[in-house]
Amino acid sequence: MLLLVWIVSACGARVEVAQFIPTERPTETVTFTPSPSRTPGRNATPTITPTQPPMTSTGGPSPTSLFGSTRTPAPDQPTATRVINPNAPRIEFFTSDVVAAAPGSDLTLYWSTRGTSSATIYRLDRGGIRNQLWNVAPDGSLTISTRQSDRDTAEFVLSVGEGDLITEQILSVPLACPDAWFFQPSPGLCPSAPPEPSPLIEERFERGRMLYVEGRDQVYALFNDGVEPGWIVFENRFDPAIHAELEETFSPPPGLYQPLRVLGFVWRGSDIVRNRLGLGLEPEFTYEGFMQSAAAVDGSESLYVSSADGTVLQLLPGGTAWQIIVAPET
After folding, report:
1. Is residue 58 a part of any domain in this protein?
2. Are residues 308 and 218 both part of a single domain?
3. In what order do the strands lie in the sheet with 106-114?
4. Which domain holds residue 275?
5. CA geometry: angle at 22 spanning 20 and 27, to 5°?
6. CA dist., res. 198 & res. 303, Å (int)
7. Per the structure, how many domains does the chain have?
8. Which of 96, 134, 164, 245 is surrounded by the most beta carbons within 10 Å?
9. Looking at residue 298, what is its pLDDT?
């Protein structure tokens, strides 16, 4: 063997020597070997593993809209989404010089737009109808006078562009309530005017009551028989110089009364009033009181009148109904 190596080396042959790199010994891997499970005997009692009910996240009661329930479109009815046209004019700002105003005062509107040569400002009434307009420059200011009769908010719309390229923005300026109610607790609405002091005549009937408001020279018949209309108003036509105070040929049963003078004139002249109210439970009563009104957002007006017993009566819009909203003092 040594001789062979020497001979090869002498001949100048090159011997390649292989390199061996040591590696770590592989780690043993534990292999799971299933073991047979114990078969329960005949008398074994099965164990029931309780199933946890699915957890449902609740965040308390669902919020309710101040304006009633919100309509949710059915799944098969896609909700239309307005796509903003990038070529439409842009409104940078639309504001006023005051955060709130008093009815009858002036306020100044400020605005700035881009991508248009003109703009229009509309004034909205309480029903959201555009009832005034001003053609204005793309940027500028405009001083507007509010009305003494304005209530709740003064609303304006800035409009730029036309058709599919129209861009609009609404500005609402809160209005302070200038008048107080004649009673407490008061409604949430702002009254349309200060309280109207007036002599009143009231009489309770079998199925309602009648009121005469001298300040308005009107007679109100209020029914509680559950039939509409809930109340009716009449202009006073009674003239003591030519009209009798009562029907002398009519005698009411004991404990009941025939209305007299202003109230009696309406009661005798209207079959509806007479049949629905019945006879009086007591004689009429004259006192000093107040009447006041308030308009809702849709323009419908409710009336509020003080009663002889210290309560306040609310006459709902359109004669639909009436109710007692302030109980008498104890």
Report:
1. no
2. yes
3. 90-96, 106-114, 139-145
4. 196-326
5. 140
6. 14
7. 2
8. 96
9. 78
